[in-house]
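Q: What residues go here?
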């Protein structure tokens, strides 16, 4: 009887565990479907003319990544633009790209906006001086009706700064090998470098440059990787 009871108890446990697992899988599938639906809403299908224009833009602006998606806030635009890997990233709303593909005047207007923006951004990076080292990404968003906004993602990384400082010191002939060795040992003792990140938004390049120069890193939360690669925030 005990064996039968144990077997029965084991079967109930297995069925319960299976039901829990099925429920967990169903929940994951629903979340995946919701995420896919949300992504599809942000990036609806493009007409052939819009697809052709997008390829032309990618070919013409080789130092720029192009993304097409619908967004409502600067934060959403920044999240999309942060995926870019080029020197600059341009985000176009679906409607605006379709308008550009259908109307040459809209196309020329937005292309002029892009050209002027890139020229000003190049100048901005030169004028920022050392502050330019903090900029990791720069994006241009062109929404409906050609509304333009700019964003810059900044990072304060002690390791990045150390590399820049060491490079400058290597250029100085009077620096001794003993001094370099001592500094390297000090940096190694620090372990994983701490990082700080922030994003600034602006309607013009001039205002973007001003906001970048005014970033107060003492008020930005610090991120430090743990041994598993996860990051925890520490308020400074």
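A:
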């Amino acid at each position: 009887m005990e064996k039968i009871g144990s077997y029965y108890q084991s079967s109930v446990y297995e069925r319960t565990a299976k039901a829990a697992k099925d429920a967990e899988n169903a929940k994951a599938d629903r979340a995946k479907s919701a995420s896919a639906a949300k992504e599809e809403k942000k990036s609806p299908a493009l007409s052939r003319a819009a697809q052709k224009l997008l390829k032309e833009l990618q070919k013409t602006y080789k130092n720029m990544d192009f993304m097409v998606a619908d967004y409502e806030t600067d934060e959403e635009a920044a999240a999309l633009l942060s995926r870019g890997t080029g020197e600059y990233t341009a985000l176009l709303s679906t409607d605006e790209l379709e308008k550009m593909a259908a109307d040459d005047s809209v196309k020329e207007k937005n292309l002029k906006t892009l050209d002027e923006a890139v020229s000003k951004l190049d100048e901005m990076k030169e004028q920022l001086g050392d502050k330019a080292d903090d900029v990791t990404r720069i994006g241009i968003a062109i929404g409906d009706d050609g509304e333009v906004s700019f964003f810059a993602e900044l990072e304060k990384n002690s390791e990045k700064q150390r590399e820049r400082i060491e490079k400058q010191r290597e250029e100085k002939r009077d620096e001794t090998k003993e001094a370099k060795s001592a500094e390297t040992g000090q940096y190694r003792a620090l372990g994983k470098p701490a990082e700080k990140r922030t994003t600034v938004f602006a309607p013009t390049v001039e205002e973007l440059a001003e906001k970048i120069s005014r970033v107060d890193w003492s008020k930005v939360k610090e991120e430090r990787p743990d041994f598993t690669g996860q990051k925890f925030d520490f308020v400074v």
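A: Context that may help when evaluating the design: The longest helix spans residues 2-42. The chain has eight helices and seven strands.
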